[in-house]
Amino acid sequence: MLVVDDDDFTRKLILRVLRDAGFDHIAEADSAHAAIKLFEAAQFDLVVTDIDMPGMNGLQFARQIRSGKTDARRETRIVVLTAYSQLEILGAALALDINGFLVKPIVP
Question: For labeling, which of 50, 94, 98, 107 is most exposed (least CB within 10 Å)?
């Protein structure tokens, strides 16, 4: 798994929840650009990414994966993490074949 979030507290919380659930092969990145670099060395079965990040946001990151512009498999499962409930954000995510949503704030 790969957890991508620019907020250290949120990223660490997600990592803790996943580890407490029994997952132990988890990488982390503080930006979409850093995550793309990680795909050069490893493949991930699941990416959990925040939408609201500086530089490249989570939807742009997902679009890069789905369009084959990264070393990730196009069919990599992607779950977006968001505080947004706006229909256009949700619609854009669904158009990218997002596999799921997690809503902030995360409650372990």
Answer: 107
Burial of 34 (0-12, 13-18, 19+ CB in 10 A): middle
pLDDT of 88 strictly over 80 = no
Residue indicated by tokens 């994966």:
65
Neighbour count for residue 1 (Cβ, 10 Å): 18
CB within 8 A of 67, min separation 6: which ones?
A: 74
- Beta strands at 27-29 and 46-50: parallel, antiparallel or unpaired: unpaired
Amino acid at 19: R
In a 13 Å sphere around the CA of 53, the CA atoms on its Cβ side amount to 29
pTM of the model: 0.91
Does residue 36 contact residue 63 with C-beta atoms inside 8 Å? no
